[in-house]
Amino acid sequence: MKRYRKGETFRPPTAAESAASADALEGFRRRSPEAQARLGRGDKILVKVHTDGIDARVGTTISSAICTKLVETSTAEEKTLLETDEEVEVFNLELADVPGDIYVQTGLTVHGTRCVELTAAPWHWAKLDGALASGGSATASIWDDVPLADTTDNLTVYAPPVLASGSLASGSWVMIQLHHNGRWYVIIAECPAP
């Protein structure tokens, strides 16, 4: 299987290459536990995305990054994810960048390419750095960690369609979520004081 590096253009396998792969895996069923055990890997794995993240798809050009494979350990009380020494190349088919240093589930395409599977859209707590008017956008500071602290990262956020009039004041706490169009939208906002 050809490995693509960040910035290289993905070329789907030819019919002959696909047929050769199918012949090599004769009798293989993608979800078969026996087949997965025989190949020594499952269909889905968890990875930690590299600090630089994975760039969004542009047209038919997809990007990838080398990610760290995670394994799950468990006791009667808790489950824990541990980073391994194994690195895996992961592609991003989405129209939005995958942020760095996050854990994501990945799966294999029918051609064996490992891709990010965003099970839920990424979200952040944020504080508006300016007023957000109906139909408009504003800059927001991203807050993370425990206790919450300003990460010094900023994003452009957009007003939700339900904000028909008025605006959200500068300094308001909001929850933002990445939409499939690549924009971050406010989905929850702090209630103004009475």
Write the layout of secondary structure elements.
Layout: H1 15-24, H2 33-39, E1 44-48, E2 63-74, E3 79-92, E4 103-108, E5 114-117, E6 123-128, E7 132-133, E8 137-144, E9 149-158, E10 167-168, E11 173-178, E12 184-189
Parallel strand pairs: 9-12
Antiparallel strand pairs: 1-2, 1-4, 2-3, 4-5, 6-8, 6-11, 7-10, 8-9, 11-12
In a few lines, what is going on in this structure?
With 194 residues, the protein is mainly β. It contains two helices and twelve strands, in the order ααββββββββββββ.
Please tell me about this protein's structure.
- There is one protein chain.
- The protein is mainly β.
- It folds into two domains: 103 residues, OB fold (Dihydrolipoamide Acetyltransferase, E2P) (Beta Barrel), CATH 2.40.50; 67 residues, Nucleic acid-binding proteins (OB fold (Dihydrolipoamide Acetyltransferase, E2P), Beta Barrel), CATH 2.40.50.
- Helix content is 9%, strand content 42%.
- The strands form three sheets. It has a five-stranded antiparallel beta sheet, with no helix packed on it. The protein has a five-stranded mixed beta barrel with strand order 6-8-9-12-11.
- The protein starts with 14 loop residues before the first helix and ends in a 5-residue tail after the last strand.
